Amino acid sequence: xxxxxxxxxxxxxxxxxxxxxxxxxxxxxxxxxxxxxxxxxxxxxxxxxxxxxxxxxxxxxxxxxxxxxxxxxxxxxxxxxxxxxxxxxxxxxxxxxxxxxxxxxxxxxxxxxxxxxxxxxxxxxxxxxxxxxxxxxxxxxxxxxxxxxxxxxxxxxxxxxxxxxxxxxxxxxxxxxxxxxxxxxxxxxxxxxxxxxxxxxxxxxxxxxxxxxxxxxxxxxxxxxxxxxxxxxxxxxxxxxxxxxxxxxxxxxxxxxxxxxxxxxxxxxxxxxxxxxxxxxxxxxxxxxxxxxxxxxxxxxxxxxxxxxxxxxxxxxxxxxxxxxxxxxxxxxxxxxxxxxxxxxxxxxxxxxxxxxxxxxxxxxxxxxxxxxxxxxxxxxxxxxxxxxxxxxxxxxxxxxxxxxxxxxxxxxxxxxxxxxxxxxxxxxxxxxxxxxxxxxxxxxxxxxxxxxxxxxxxxxxxxx
Length: 465
Fold this sequence. Notes:
Structural class: mainly alpha
Largest sheet: 3 strands, mixed
Radius of gyration: 25 Å
Order of helices and strands: HHEHHHHHHEHHEEHHHHHHEEHEHEHEE
Low-confidence stretches: 62-71
Mean pLDDT: 90
Strand order of the largest sheet: 4-6-5
Shape: globular
Strand content: 5-15%
Helix content: 40-55%
């Protein structure tokens, strides 16, 4: 039987590149190994690029923030031409439109979902990197869902002024979109799409909540991906692995689950250097004849450990043995190239995955792996992570995010309180009993907790939108 793993191709790749390289396999994350921290405080600025990717459009060459906010703004001039008024009134209208559509930083204010298309990236020094994040979110979370596209591609408005403004926008042009990142957590992506579409029914709330919802799911996606990779071929990609959050306004101690090394962010922080190694290990393993894209010209599918094992098992024992032997052979050749010594001989396919990972870990730069993994912390910093002194960064849930998460979990019909916490778990969020008590007290004070039920004592959470 011919090889399943393309050992010769992998060997040529390392020898020609003289460094670790993912080869023909599509990307998984937008992270850079040099860790610029550009995503910190800048997540909102990538939303415009993200939405343009969804809609398949791009800004024309001039910049919205520079050319729009001028005394001779062509966009505003076009609107004024549609309104009959005296010169003094026209001047006042121009000033009003400038204040109505732009903030003090000269950034356009999305007063309608369509206007997210005009939010430009402010940090131009890292524009290329930030655009990678925008492309990543489109490929992995919204994908090509037509309903999500319609939310941001629809100019209809009940507001006469907004309708006039939208009808005069003409700084976008079509662009061809390619898939640059492999979507892996389909269940999480589906929940994001459902939550986004539900929120879009409430325009004003949607305009303020869409950015943080997208930020939350992006951060959660990355954390979940690391947790799944750490489970090798035993991972279940159809469910989320809960991580414990602490409420922003409560004090916590090291005994709380949010501060635990296995159940909170400490687990992510400790394992984050492994992310770079896992991606390269699976990228190497994806160079196999069972890959659905094996004979195509475009980038090949990224296959995680579980998918590789399932596919080869479907082919039967002979193929399983062949792949196992191929990986053993590749481990030997890689160790020669990297000048490392495998700790033990792999006993089966699952063990071979782990041995290869261990060899790459020893053959890679520790500094590069740490910087790459550190991007996770940068992605969640200041919003979903809060530094708690000696406890370090802890997963954080503020009032705004808690109520948003509650709104999308409950949606239009009241649900039992216990079911709400289950919905939180489905989105990767867990709370210990102390936080749950705080949440119940908050809900009670906001009058969204309904204690009336058929059983007389069950608690329900009412819709809040």
